[in-house]
Design a protein that fits this description.
Length: about 300
């Protein structure tokens, strides 16, 4: 049992140590700011200072209160067992933090998706990591302005999609629907020229580096050049442009491509974009001859 006087001295010493270490942390953070480091280096050193200060504070204050306690091993065993039950979730979060630091499923600045939440990683802490949200009610995966804090234990139970790890590009597709009466071959040729003009041009060295990165996993990249696919749907002929784009430039790239498509199609008299309409098709007048349509004029009735 601690005497009242002894407890008062330990409490006073603990307060002094906490205040002194907090002042030291503040001074060190100001020193880091004064060095005009890059944002990533400044972030790293702020974290080092914070975690070091907290660890030192825990060791010193804990040592003060545990000094002189009999059967210290028994006490610590009971304490750790109780904490393991009461703080199960935070302990798993800390384990998840060590997993993130060791295995790097994502790093600061990566764009990820986990449990239907998408965003750019802006902070990784002992209990949770934070992302700047993208998507939701905003099109083309642009920022919503909200910050989401996700417990670290999710890395053990949820699938993580990383947009930018190793390979900084994603495949995007733009479907263009034209009417059945349009000259689809000409339209496809126009789209191929447009998508080639906006495509990412890899040098031989860059393409080799990209493929070397892909070998770290079992990835079959295939061709990196853009392509236009042809499909027939209910409302017309669908021409789908597939191309590589930087993960964070998807919307800008789509806008540039669509503006080029609209300008090009506006100059053509035999290409029309399709949209939802109603049409009556009278086969005896409009159909092909072999399907019951009108006979040719030079043929006898």
């Amino acid at each position: 049992m601690l005497s009242l006087e002894n407890a008062s001295l330990k409490a006073a010493a603990s307060i002094i140590i906490v205040v002194a270490l907090m002042l030291l942390r503040k001074a060190l953070n100001k020193f880091v700011v004064s060095r005009n480091l890059s944002s990533s280096n400044a972030y790293f050193w702020h974290k080092v200072v914070t975690y070091s200060t907290i660890s030192l504070m825990t060791l010193i204050v804990g040592g003060i209160w545990l000094y002189g306690v009999q059967n210290l091993a028994t006490f610590l065993g009971l304490l750790s067992a109780g904490l393991a039950v009461a703080l199960r979730e935070p302990i798993v979060d800390v384990a998840g933090w060590f997993f993130i630091l060791a295995k790097h499923p994502f790093s600061l600045g990566d764009r990820i998706e986990i449990d239907a939440m998408r965003g750019d990683v802006i902070d990784i802490g002992p209990l949770y990591f934070s992302v700047m949200e993208i998507g939701r009610w905003v099109d083309a995966e642009q920022s919503t302005g909200r910050i989401i804090h996700i417990p670290n234990n999710r890395v053990f139970t949820s699938a993580i999609a990383n947009y930018t790890q190793q390979f900084p590009y994603i495949w995007d597709e733009i479907p263009v629907l034209i009417t059945f009466e349009s000259n689809w071959e000409k339209a496809k040729d126009i789209l191929e020229k447009i998508i080639s003009a906006h495509a990412i041009i890899f040098t031989k060295v860059e393409e080799r580096e990209v493929r070397e990165l892909a070998t770290r996993y079992y990835i079959k990249l295939g061709a990196l050049t853009p392509i236009v696919y042809t499909t027939v749907v209910d409302s017309g002929v669908q021409l789908t442009m597939r191309y590589l784009t930087p993960a964070r430039q998807r919307r800008d790239k789509e806008q540039q491509i669509w503006e080029s498509v609209l300008r090009a199609f506006a100059r053509e008299d035999d290409i029309d974009l399709a949209y939802n309409t109603q049409r009556v098709f009278y086969n005896p007048r409009e159909g092909k001859q072999g399907t019951g349509g009108p006979k040719r004029r030079n043929e006898p009735s």
